[in-house]
Amino acid sequence: LTKATTIAIDAMGGDHAPLEIIRGAVLAARDLQVKIILTGKKDIIEAILHQEEGCCSGLDIEIVDAPDDIPMDEKNPARAVKRGAKSSVVVANKLVAEGRADAVIAAGHTGAATAASLFELGRIEGFERPCICTLIPTHSSRILLIDAGSNIEATAEQMHQTAILGNILAKILLSGELCASRIMKEQGLRAEDFLPKIGLLNVGEEPGKGTTLYKDTYDLLKNESRIDFVGNVEGKTIIDNVCDVVICDGFTGNIHLKALEGGLRMMSKSFEREFKNRGLLSKIAALILKLSGTFDRIKDHFDPSSYGGALLGGLNGVSLISHGSSNAEAIKNACKHAQVLVSEGVVGKIKNSF
Amino acid sequence: LTKATTIAIDAMGGDHAPLEIIRGAVLAARDLQVKIILTGKKDIIEAILHQEEGCCSGLDIEIVDAPDDIPMDEKNPARAVKRGAKSSVVVANKLVAEGRADAVIAAGHTGAATAASLFELGRIEGFERPCICTLIPTHSSRILLIDAGSNIEATAEQMHQTAILGNILAKILLSGELCASRIMKEQGLRAEDFLPKIGLLNVGEEPGKGTTLYKDTYDLLKNESRIDFVGNVEGKTIIDNVCDVVICDGFTGNIHLKALEGGLRMMSKSFEREFKNRGLLSKIAALILKLSGTFDRIKDHFDPSSYGGALLGGLNGVSLISHGSSNAEAIKNACKHAQVLVSEGVVGKIKNSF
Questions:
Q1: CA separation for the pair A97, A101 (Å, rounded)
Q2: Phi/psi of residue A61, each to 5°?
Q3: What is the pLDDT at residue B264?
Q4: CB of A233 within 8 A of CB of A200?
Q5: CB A66 within 8 A of CB A90
Q6: Are B340 and B173 in contact (CB under 8 A)?
Q7: Residue A57, class by beta-carbon neighbours within 10 Å (0-12 exposed, 13-18 middle, 19+ buried)?
Q8: Buried b or exposed e, range A11-43, using 16+ CB within 10 angstroms
Q9: Min CA distance, B298 vs chain A (Å)?
Q10: Residue in A108, A180, A94 with CA at minimum distance from that of residue A141
Q11: What whole-number distance in Å separates Cα of residue B239 and Cα of residue B234?
Q12: How far, in Å, CA of B40 to CA of B321, rounded?
């Protein structure tokens, strides 16, 4: 990375905004070779930066005032974005559109962030609908799930397009420093030789499974020579790394993601409850697991924070959607994610395929 | 339960058939007030029953010979069922159709079991498509997910019908001995006063979320006076018991279920790997958790075995689909499940609503 990447961050979006967002920006500016532009209420951001001054003097952080914000319960984000030219999420996206920043990160209202990126950055010509490209955990690694919730009523052709995009993105993300593919490492493959395995999320592995939409998409992917299509995959088996990219429509992807999130949270809680309610021995066991780092390692592997953000794929610019619950660490990781995507020229590579 | 329920079981279906299925039948005949009819290859079933004789002498178990079986990789189960009049799954369903049994349990090919039940038992008049009604775990209880994978391309009206069916089924299953609703108990409610909360699985809680199918279904459920519709629910929040029944189409339900299964398995494996690879202290912690029963309690809560089987709803008879991995305990639990459904007259109650 020769030139510092400039990243615009919506300081006002997210459950823990603005404090955790700004802290994340400070971490990124300190630890990564990036320049940060924070958008939002200038006086508030300045006050928080001042508070954190000890660690941030001399850091490359700029503030661009954006007095409006879009609340998390906004029912019509597209309209709010059209009217909210001075909202923090719109201003952050404008910075990328104007070439003043290389990437934008937003942890607020997903619909508003998507609408703002769509309006300000525009679609890549030939790519019909933006898609959310999320990294999800497997037993030993991470894989890409596309679309995680943007294009709710997708067509087979649009899902076909996301597979082409996913192929490019997996080469960048899964072979890079951000998330090394275990299998690739084992086989001693170089990044440029990495041909991602693409699977279609479905209710069974056999061809002919699923709705008409999924049968049609299967046929398109099977006949696409540019990708290594491994066929239908199931939610219970993708955790065994049967593929590197899982393709689905936005509705199905979001259902999958939230079921997974619910399941993981339920199991964590079960252990917590057991440790709390049971006898002394269980408490000792819990203490050992805590001290030995077992809990932290497992938590880290499944924690969405460590994934940073999901690329909003198919746009004329790098836009990352971060989890609403993002803390400082998550924002820093999103910046790292953005840095990799920008330096690898992800938008240009996608453009070349459409 | 005054009269013994007669349950036909496909002895040849399932990953661990016939041994575990027959052992489960023996457990059920021994521990529950039920009569069992096993269908399948008579000589094999007799040999296994003979082996297990010590515990099963005097038990009420009959064998009905059914020499054919339908393999798990059968691509066209409907055709196989039409041709396989002497397959164990068809014969078991015939017993219910002929009134010789009150319920049927099958752990083999789900498509074949569904087709066999549909052909032999027939649909309840007015109920368009059968649905799989599965119990899934929450933090503290269990809830019903309908449809878990039968009606892949459902209409809003068909989903509306499953909500009416789910309301009836929840009253039987969630207020009975099989799966007590925590909330109900806390509020000191009697079974007859229990009005199940019905939620629509979706990608967000606000009205207007999801595909056209889900928007249309939402409108139908909102205007249905016979149920307590709580609106859209998400996979990450249903674990907090926000509702008793989750309605979705078969494709989406199956995606949800498999994501949940994958997530739970991934987390279990993470703990196992930690205990295996880390130092002595972690091993001691693991031993304590094992000895104190923590692992078993958590495993039991999430284990599909303890759920027994899922009712194939909307048919003229009680047909339960058990998990392919069913062991003896799972089959026994399915028998208990069937016993409750038969004694509560589930089919009659559903018929009265259509």
A1: 8
A2: -125, 125
A3: 87
A4: yes
A5: yes
A6: yes
A7: exposed
A8: bbbbebbbbbbbbbbbbbbeebebbbbbbbbee
A9: 7
A10: A180
A11: 9
A12: 17
Q: Taking a C-beta distance cutoff of 8 angstroms, is the pair B59, B27 a contact?
A: no
Query: What pTM did the predictor assign?
Result: 0.92
Within 10 angstroms of residue A240's Cβ, the number of other Cβ atoms is 15
The answer to whether the CB atoms of B267 and A294 lie below 8 A apart is no
Pairing of strands B228-233, A5-10: unpaired
CA atoms within 13 A on the CB side of A60: 14
pLDDT at A278: 67
A301-310, B78-87, B177-186, B189-198: range with highest mean pLDDT? B78-87
Q: How far apart are CA B311 and CA B299, in angstroms?
A: 23
Distance CA B184, CA B26 (A): 34
Torsion of CA B14, B18, B20, B26, to 10 degrees: 130
Amino acid (1-letter code) at residue B76 = N
DSSP state of B204: S
**B52: confidence class by pLDDT, cuts 50, 70, 90:** confident
Check pLDDT > 50 for residue B177: no
* Interface contact flag, B201 A254, Cβ < 8 Å: no
The residue among A76, A294, A303 with the most chain B CBs within 10 A of its CB, best to mutate, is A294
Class of residue B88 by CB neighbours under 10 A (exposed 0-12, middle 13-18, buried 19+): buried
CA-closest candidate to residue B328, choices B29, B8, B6: B29
Q: List the structure tokens of B284.
A: 């001691």
pLDDT at A284: 81
Mean pLDDT for all residues in chain B:
89
Mutate: best of A203, A241, A297, partner B, most B CBs <10 A? A203
Task: Give the max Cα distance, chain B.
Answer: 63
| Average pLDDT of the segment spanning B195-222 | 96
Contact A139 B206 (CB under 8 A): no
Per-residue model confidence as pLDDT tens digits over B111-139: 999 999 999 999 999 999 999 999 998 88
- Residue B1 pLDDT more than 90? no
Q: Is the pLDDT of residue A166 over 90?
A: yes
Give the tens place of pLDDT for each residue, A211-230. 999 999 999 999 999 999 99
A199 Cβ contact partners less than 8 Å away, ≥ 6 residues apart: A229, A230, A231, A232, A233, A238, A242, A243, A245, A246, A247
Q: Do A234 and B258 touch (CB under 8 A)?
A: yes
Question: What percentage of residues in chain A have a pLDDT greater than 70?
Answer: 92
Query: What are A49-99's pLDDT values in tens digits?
Result: 988 866 556 789 999 999 988 887 888 888 989 888 899 999 999 999 999
Q: What angle do CA A257, B236, B329 make, to 5 degrees?
A: 95
CA B178 to chain centre: 12
- CB A235 to CB B203 under 8 A? no
Rounded to a whole number, what is the distance in Å from the CA of A210 to chain B's nearest CA? 6
Determine the distance from the C-alpha atom of residue B313 to the mean position of all C-alpha atoms in its chain, rounded to a whole number.
10
Residue B139 has its nearest CB partner, among A211, A236, A266, at A266
What one-character DSSP code corresponds to residue B81?
H
